[in-house]
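Reading a protein record of the kind used here takes only a little practice. Each token is a code from a learned vocabulary of local backbone shapes. With that in mind, consider the following protein and its fold in token form:
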Amino acid sequence: MSRAPEFIVLTDAAARAVSGTNSRHAALIEDAFGVLVETPGGGVQLSGDSKSRGMAKRAIQSLASRADQGLEINEADVRVAIGQARIGSGAAPGGLPVGRRGQVAPKTPAQARYLKALTDHPLVFGLGPAGTGKTFLAVAHGAGLLLRGEVDRLIVSRPAVEAGERLGFLPGDLSEKVDPYMAPVWEALTDIMGVDQFRRRREKGEIELAPIAFMRGRTLSHAFVIVDEAQNATRLQMKMVLTRLGEGARMAVTGDPSQVDLVNARDSGLAHAVSLLDGVEGVGVARFAAEDVVRHPLVERIVRAYEADAAMNGRPD
């Protein structure tokens, strides 16, 4: 394959964004694709084999497009562009698995920062509105760790607080009671792993879905633990589940502090835990906003409308 250099014409703003401060962005692209990125003026010059140049070019063009829109480009944006450029190449950005709908990859800078936090910290809080990928990416990250053998178990827990009901009011055994609360997580896992593998690993105890109440008294070692819908965990429940971490364990705690279903919203343990632990060594906090919604475009507009109403009326949304 040809290794002849390729020149990509860019605006001055786009060229500066692609290069980055002290050429940091260019270095990330070089390391990701094994190419040489030079900025002689008027654009960038790529050297390397044609396949690597092609992926690097897609990443550069994505960054250039954002820069030409007047958007600031940071390292997280560069990592997103790299991940998106790799889709279809067989590489797995951030070690994420390939789901039934293709390679799992971050779609926004906030998602890229979240995945980096999950990699860098044993405890990560993911905060923000519905549809921003908090749970799905935590599940994908955990599934990747499990599939690669980096953890022995994937444990997903949720508070059993839905429309004022409790587990005891539902018929059936534990699985039949728990599964309705775990439906979003079940869907994410089957999308990533497939129904058969999910079922096999659940039967072997490698995947466990359980309400927070069943975490008490346990030490969770060599596991990736996801606490989902954590805004509905009380302060006591949150302290209890956070202190379950054992040797070789990691944890992601996700939720939307503005959507508390507890009778007393002030008893929510999510915002309280973040206020106590933000800045503590080993703890990462990733925050999402309306612009990070990756569901139907209408969802972002709905979230913004509720936020505006809350701000106007001086109350939590």
Notes: The radius of gyration is 22 Å. The chain has a mean pLDDT of 83.
